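Field log, afternoon session.

UNIT: design team B
ACTIVITY: writing a sequence onto a fixed backbone
BACKBONE:
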């Protein structure tokens, strides 16, 4: 579904990503871990064409999008729902207007619009918040609304940037359960980037570790738990992602 082939991202000679190759299958829940500043968000932005690699190629659904124009990228971005770290809601719009943003120009009645918004909010476990403003919601609820807005586009894949960052453990687990549940119910390919090892191990089918601009590991959660590679062992037993230093 999403493939990176020997991707380099080296703005002004800075070595951010160097030779990243990975292949995420349709319906898979794939987690990319790495310390802060490792390049995790950069990988998501490369996947939906917000930035271009300096070398290598990116394939989405069998199409090489590397050289795509903004116009060609529009349908690709509809396939890939981005769930931003900050939820990135429109603060001056209600929850309903945020969730229904993709349908604002669709020729549907007000009633149908509200019905669809309600159904989409139900998927993420929210009720009776349609008329509230984003500022009136908790951090966990804002994340859910951001997720509902992405689901509303009916995407083939969801790309989550640090879905559990800044949340308390209970809310964090709820969001992870939701990510797993969405993958299972909607069969949506899911890519999650996180600095949280526990979150990645709890949710993902396969995981990768970004370290010093490269993928130091790629495999199943069990393969990572049982690896004998000293660098990866240090990371797994330490419970958090170390800096390349
Ligand atoms: N367009 C860009 N131009 C220059 N540097 C960038 C650009 N995008 C990201 N970076 C740098 O790349 C590094 C990785 O950023 P990022 O992908 O946001 O890391 P992470 O999400 O893992 O915390 C940072 O040092 C950041 O400053
Ligand atoms: Mg980031």
């Amino acid at each position: 579904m999403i493939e990176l082939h020997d991707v380099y991202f080296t703005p002004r000679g800075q070595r951010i990503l160097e030779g990243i190759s990975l292949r995420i299958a349709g319906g898979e829940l794939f987690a990319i871990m790495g310390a802060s500043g490792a390049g995790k968000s950069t990988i998501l932005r490369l996947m939906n064409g917000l930035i271009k690699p300096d070398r290598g190629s990116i394939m989405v659904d069998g199409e090489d999008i590397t050289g795509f124009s903004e116009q060609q990228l529009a349908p690709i971005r509809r396939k890939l729902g981005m769930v931003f770290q900050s939820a990135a809601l429109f603060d001056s719009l209600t929850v309903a207007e945020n969730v229904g943003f993709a349908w604002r120009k669709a020729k549907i009645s007000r009633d149908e619009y509200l019905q669809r918004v309600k159904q989409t909010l139900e998927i993420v476990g929210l009720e009776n918040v349609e008329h509230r403003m984003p500022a009136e919601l908790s951090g966990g609820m804002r994340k859910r609304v951001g997720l509902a807005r992405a689901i509303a586009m009916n995407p083939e894949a969801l790309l989550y940037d640090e879905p559990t960052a800044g949340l308390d453990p209970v809310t964090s687990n709820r969001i992870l359960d939701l990510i797993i549940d969405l993958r299972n119910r909607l069969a949506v390919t899911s890519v999650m980037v996180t600095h949280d090892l526990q979150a990645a191990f709890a949710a993902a089918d396969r995981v990768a570790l970004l370290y010093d601009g490269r993928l130091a590991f790629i495999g199943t959660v069990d393969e990572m738990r049982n690896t004998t590679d000293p660098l990866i062992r240090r990371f797994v037993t330490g419970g958090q992602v170390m800096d390349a230093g």
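LOG NOTE: The chain is about 35% helix and 25% strand.
NEXT ACTIVITY: expression trials, pending approval
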